[in-house]
Amino acid sequence: MKKKLIISLLTVFAFLTAKAQLSPLHVENQYFKNQNGEIVILHGFAQTFSPWFNEKGTKWTNYDVDGCLRYNKGIIEGILNAGWKMTFVRQHMDPYWSNTPGVQTTGESDIHAFDFERFKKYLDEVFVPMAEYAIGHGLYVVMRPPGVCPETIAIGDAYQEYLIKVWEHVAQHPKLKNNGAVLFELANEPVKINAGSLSNEEAISKYFQAIVDVMRQHCNNILLVPGLGWQSQYAGFAKYPVKGDNIGYAVHCYPGWYNSGHEGEVTTTYFDFKRGWDAQIGPIAEKAPIVVTEMDWAPQKYSPKHTDGQGNVYYDPRCSFAFAYTGKAGETGFGANFMRICDETCNVSWLLFTGGELLAKYDDTAPDGETFLTDPEACPRPVFRKYQYYATDEYKTLINSDEYGYTRPTQPLFSLEAQWFNPSIWEKGTYDETTGALTTGQYGFGGWEYGDGVDLSQHRYLIVELSQPQDVGASFRLFDTNDYWSKPSRTDFGSNTKIVIDLQNLKAYKDDQCTQFDHNIDPSHIYIAGFWTRGGKPIYIKAIFQSDDGKTPTGISLPTSSYSSNTVYTLQGVRVGTSDRMSQLPHGIYIVGGKKIVK
Cβ(329)–Cβ(387) under 8 Å? Predict the structure, then answer.
């Protein structure tokens, strides 16, 4: 009997020990890999260590370290006991602990109450113990700094100095430095940057490069870089990547972002979402691993209303921050398409941002119903079941197979097929590829986004034609910066149905009357192109193509004049590639060597 008990105890000890020893992660090309060289894609949840975010102060308060640890350790146990197949947790080093008690602030971006000595104290007493506890339960840890970014940041500003101070200390902590189970998310939700003489893309890269360089003096942990636009803008990092080893990027994704649609836009499709994702996330996902550190969805009816002290009504964020349906992968809806797109990108780790106290109550044996935890159109149920698949040997074998990997489709230049044309680059619009009808939202913009930029400098002119006159103030605009709010070139249609744009003489102006010159537009890297209108009525797009003489081709004769016989065109005369790359083009009818080819 005693021998059996000893063997049983040894078995339990061996299990717990194996569970606690996570294989250290590193970045290799665009993947996380463990010490065995296997690709690892993480799936998890988030924790915030403050009374309000731990069930609105009903579980512990008054800087009660023991109460905080007891509650949050219990949340981890409850989630795992409920059957969730979690592999990481994002832990927020909430400013509740590091701000001087009693000092009023204007929000989490206000750092004037930050007390470095308090931060050091509670790093040791709260944040590190919780990280250790999570790791001991088989979870990798992403640590996030206290608070959120102010609306506008700038290189050398007080907030950058604050981040450097926080991270330099964390990077030297003996239990965190060089710990392959701990990743650092460098900031939360930068919005805008005062770039000065730099582009926004170069400025945000330099902003975080300075933080990375300081941390690299002390640790080699994986560092996750956030983008602008509340962590939604990443295409510029492809041109200006943050340099160094073990670099990844921390992304946020909510309904409505990346053209994904939300509860009020149920007709938004997978192709809309995928196009927006590929434009912003695709360029950097080809170079580095991605972690989505905030994401959730649910129909609005599951977010209970609350009222603050001033009588303002708001929704409880612990269910969902944004409202949408799961939908069906490949069709409409947010959740199912989000999961499909992450899988297709092949190196995207992600989490569910729903409150841990709710996840711990999940019961997968309960029938589908009309509650947040049982409705398949809310995030918990489909995510729980997706995580079950990710935990299988089949999935682990798949992501480490020779066939695994993602090649982002090359977007055809000025394709008028609906899957490539975005009618909602600014404001919600609609597009009908059969008639070419584009109706933008009010003062809206529709067209094409090129995450890596496209080179239009090889030809002298760009010709844009409408099928009929318009009366909504339509103009065609070209942006040489991956920012819709930068200054583009602008060519008005007026009463014309055809405009000829001189690509070698593109100018941006400061004013709508185009009288105050701002700068020349460089046609060698165009990131956004398309149509601006006042909205309300459609314009009818006939064709758009490059030309060396500014003349409109007759029918489909354009390819025969000065282009090689293997060049591929759409029926509108748009050059989309060469015949040796036909496999990368979507299904359709093309012109190759003066002949129609059906793919």
Answer: no
The pLDDT assigned to 575 comes to 55
The whole-number average pLDDT for the span 165-188 is: 98
> CA dist 403 to 37, 407, 513, 599, Å?
16, 11, 54, 24
The structural domains of the chain, with segments of one domain joined by +, span 33-399, 422-552, 556-599
Residue 577 has pLDDT above 80, yes or no: no
DSSP string of 534-564, one letter each residue:
-SSS-EEEEEEEEESSSPPPPTT-THHHHS-
Lowest mean pLDDT among 211-225, 377-391, 401-415: 401-415
**What is the DSSP code (8-state) at residue 263?**
T
Residue 434, C-beta contacts closer than 8 angstroms, at least 6 positions apart: none
Report which DSSP code applies to 257: G
Residue 19 has pLDDT above 50, yes or no: no
**What is the C-alpha separation between 32 and 26, in angstroms, rounded?**
6
pLDDT at 39: 97
CATH class, range 33-399: alpha beta
Tokens of 345: 């990108």
Q: How many residues does the chain have?
A: 599
Higher pLDDT, 93 or 409: 93
Is residue 556 scored above 60 in pLDDT?
Answer: no
Q: What letters, b where the CB count within 10 A reaches 16 and e where it falls short, cover 242-269?
A: beeebbbbbbbbbbbbbbbbbbebeebb
Distance in angstroms (rounded) separating the CA atoms of residues 413 and 566: 17
Indicate the average pLDDT of the chain.
89
Cα→Cα distances 305→215, 302, 313, 382, Å = 42, 9, 7, 24
Contact partners, residue 356, CB within 8 Å, separation at least 6: 45, 46, 47, 72, 75, 76, 78, 79
Q: Reply yes or no on whether the pLDDT at 305 is more than 90.
A: no
User: How wide is the angle at C-alpha 89 spanned by C-alphas 85 and 90, nearest 5°?
Assistant: 150
Distance, CA of 248 to CA of 259 (rounded, Å) = 23
**Residue 146 near residue 95, CB atoms below 8 Å:** yes
Question: What is the DSSP secondary-structure string of 333-345?
Answer: -SHHHHHHHHHHH
Q: What pTM did the predictor assign? A: 0.82
Q: What is the DSSP letter of 298?
A: B
What CATH class does 422-552 carry? mainly beta
